[in-house]
Amino acid sequence: MLPDILITDKQWTPRDWAKCNDAARYFATNKVVWSVTDNIVKTYIGGKNQHAEISRIDIPSIIAVTGPVDGANWKRNDSNFVDRQILYGRDLRLCAYCGDVFKDHELTIDHIIPSSQNGPSTWMNCVTACGPCNKRKANRTPEKARMQLLYVPYIPNKFEKILLKGRNVLADQMEFLMRKIPKSSRCWQN
Q: CA–CA separation, 45 vs 58, rounded Å?
């Protein structure tokens, strides 16, 4: 399976991950400003161009582009919306109450201030919890449930969100993203 390509804007801000085919569309529509790496993930060889040359598109692992390939607006990576996959990564798949590590399908999102008490679904109010701990806490705050929160939630920056969203992240992509992730992030603990 091919790794995803890291897409950034002209200011080197990560925007999203793209499949190789989508990255090729960026090249074909002249939206690539530069590539940040020489690490070629895939090469497409096609028909002949107007000069009778065989077309070739080398897809590097990181590209900077002028905008989304389909003309739509960028997805907002800086939103306060809690994404399950990113939250589990931020919390290192640790239950915030018992401290054990779990697989994704064994985890839940716990609202520190419960939704039933108007607790928002924000990065600062959500933590990873195993099913039994979440059930035990129920619709109570940790204090009322007499359960101690083992770590403090925080808002991941957009570089961290992109890293945690990625699958099969290549070394050069990891290095690029980690340069902009604060040392206080749990990403440095992995």
A: 9
pLDDT bin (cut points 50, 70, 90) of residue 167 is: confident
Per the structure block, which two tokens stand in for 69? 């390939």
Is the pLDDT at 185 greater than 70? The verdict is yes
> Using alpha carbons only, what angle is made at residue 149 by residues 143 and 154, rounded to the nearest 5 degrees?
120
Strand partners, 40: 60
Angle between helices 171-178 and 158-165 (to 10 degrees): 160
Domains of the chain: 5-65 (no CATH), 84-137 (1.10.30.50)
On whether the pTM is more than 0.85, the answer is no
H or E element, residue 54? strand 54-60
